[in-house]
Q: What sequence folds into this?
């Protein structure tokens, strides 16, 4: 079996397309953002990527049919230089080698599809609750840094201190070896929950850069659900603890 | 050394055979089921599969002779479209890569043997005792889902939530890439013990589908042994705990 | 870099040689036994095996010179059918794949050297102190089992329950694929300490089988050292515990 | 993607150059030492090494631009037999296989660059504070051991007991297979902090051997910062503990 297998459902003819990556990660910010934008723009799935670097797992869909875990690519046509390719998926590669192989493989496919500009989306975990998430950035060259600052992206010395791990980082690092211009947009997030609010912050920047208009209703309603859960948890924490309470919580944990 | 090595003891001529997989997993449900059916039908071993994705281990048999851990294939002839190939074994692949390689390798061999229909057997761990295990299903297409529902297989939205991990899942996911129709049958099980009762539930469905008759005496007697152990454990748990008891249990744990 | 690298210092001409393996493992029984016998018979090192399946490590010798961790082969000439090749070393392969690759690689080399009989030496961990270690066996065929029983090797149903893991097992399991007759001799050991007494028990059997005479003085003196340490520890354990004692032991642990 | 990728920015013509390795490790002694010496000698970066054996990570620099984690080589020209090549970097290989592959790959490149003498720099962790770090050594041959003893390197029987793990060890062990003379210099260090003082001790030896003069001001000032932190921690530990103190520390930990 090949390490990575791509199955094209269609070979789209795109003109100088822009690539947007959003895979699972901290707070699932990147995945939420890319999937939301893809859905809002009614992008068309054109390729499936399977790999032995993913878990050996199938998902069972609501109709009882299975789906081998994968990454998928979808496109939307908007005219020369404005076409977009989305990469979304169930997992990132499980091992460092797998991460490198997958990012490199996908960049090669993108090269073939004519991509020269890359946006990777992710979360920046703060380990504390965030009320108004900033969007941090990193880029492959100085001109891009300037461009992003103009639309409100924060480039903050020493943040993120640990660098960017996974596909969102590698596609910049390896992308440079493929002569691609690439930007990583990271929404601040606690890292404790999936974070639609942070995903929205990231998309507000990205849509401005790409001159796209989309509705955020879906993300906002997801954000409200999460808020309801987290504020309930805060209430529990704030309540003075009694031995009985403690026992009750034991049943939850 | 090749990653995977198959040794054919015989090259059986089979007519449109059906494949049944049962390897170790949750509650060993799949393994128990496939081995029981294979034994009852007096299937003939025809191939051994060795691999560096298995543990580096030999088992010592009762006569002092060793056996390198492996997977085995056996066949039973029942006439065109009714022949069955069983896959049983000591282990599944240890790593995700190994899982993918092994499932893909075996599917290729099966393709060569003319297999187009696949049944994978496994357990669905509930984390609590189960008195009457249901059999959950997942399949590669909608028609199969319908067929299975007719014989009592449960397709339940959101179950199994984590999908199907390992060979029982992969052989469906990859099987589809080989144009094979595949069904996974999962017997509910606590996951705490090997579970012959759950294996029987799975086989009651499978034998109906394949129009096979077999005795379940062996599985039933195994189930009684397990029941005897688990009810003893329940008794111990139900006894009001005293400090002395606690100490005693300490010696067991 | 090749996965495994063998460097021949000499290409010995051996007549139908017997192979003896003793690598690190439980109680280091196999390693102690093989190294002792090799030293007593003044076997000549003729090959070094390096591999990326070993730890990335050099050892520093007493003269300040380094040695890349390896496995080594040595031979002793005793006449047709009596020549012996020893395999000893610093480590076994770190991963399952590495274990398979190394055992297979070495068996291929041995095939080239004319080996048809293999003895692998190891320990059988009991998890309790052993005063008079038995030597358990496992073999590739029934005739060998009989031969070994004649010299006192114990073939005990269900022992070792977990089979034989690592090179001592694989060289039997894979050896059979190379048409080699192979026996594993396992000395009982607590598994808590290196165990020269168990190594001696193994060698008493092996030397009888191979019709070799060697001194055991070295192993006996090592065994005395270990006994001195373990009986001291037993004394400490036997002493009634007081809070002060407990504190003292804290400094040791 | 290739496992290891080297990008030459320049192909320097060097005469019988000496190689100095300093990658991250215990107390970061080797990395600190090699980077300091490289900076002091204004060595010129000429090659970047990327690999899937490194973490899948980019670092974000102060200007917002990213850098794919790598190892780098730099050279300084000092005349025949005195030219130096430095290897520094963000990481060592993550797996044993990666470690072997990377060291072997780099040694091959060095062979092509004409290197015959190798110095690897590292720390020797003692697990306790060290006031005046000794420099321990290990070498590929007896003459080198003597040469190093003359400049104060300590070759101490049984130290380091666990051998040398990682690139500093492998480049000696594999270097010998490439007919390179190699020495490892290890500065004693607690292993609890990055240790510029230990790095300086190592460099004092190395600069003497290579007849180089450099300033240590930078390292000394780094050492003072570390000393300030560690002596503060010692003060806290020495202060008699009260329940309130304990709580306060809880907030720090």
A:
């Amino acid at each position: 079996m090949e390490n990575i297998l791509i199955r094209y459902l269609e070979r789209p003819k795109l003109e100088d397309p822009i690539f947007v990556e959003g895979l699972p990660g901290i707070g699932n910010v990147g995945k939420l953002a890319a999937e939301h934008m893809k859905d809002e723009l009614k992008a068309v799935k054109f390729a499936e990527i399977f790999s032995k670097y993913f878990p050996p797992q199938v998902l069972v869909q609501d109709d009882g049919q299975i789906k081998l875990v994968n990454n998928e690519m979808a496109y939307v046509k908007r005219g020369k230089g404005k076409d977009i390719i989305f990469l979304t998926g169930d997992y990132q590669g499980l091992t460092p080698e797998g991460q490198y192989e997958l990012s490199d493989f996908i960049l090669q496919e993108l090269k073939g599809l004519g991509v020269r500009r890359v946006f990777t989306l992710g979360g920046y975990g703060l380990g504390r609750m965030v009320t108004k998430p900033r969007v941090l950035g990193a880029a492959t060259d100085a001109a891009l840094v300037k461009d992003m600052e103009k639309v409100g992206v924060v480039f903050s010395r020493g943040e993120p201190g640990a660098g960017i791990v996974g596909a969102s980082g590698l596609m910049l690092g390896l992308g440079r070896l493929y002569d691609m211009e690439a930007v990583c947009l990271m929404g601040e997030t606690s890292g404790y929950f999936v974070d639609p609010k942070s995903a929205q912050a990231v998309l507000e920047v990205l849509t401005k850069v790409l001159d796209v208009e989309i509705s955020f209703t879906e993300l906002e309603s997801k954000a409200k659900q999460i808020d309801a859960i987290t504020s309930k948890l805060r209430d529990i924490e704030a309540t003075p603890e009694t031995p009985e309470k403690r026992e009750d919580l034991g049943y939850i944990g």
Q: What stands out?
A: Chain B is about 40% helix and 25% strand. The mean pLDDT of chain B is 92.
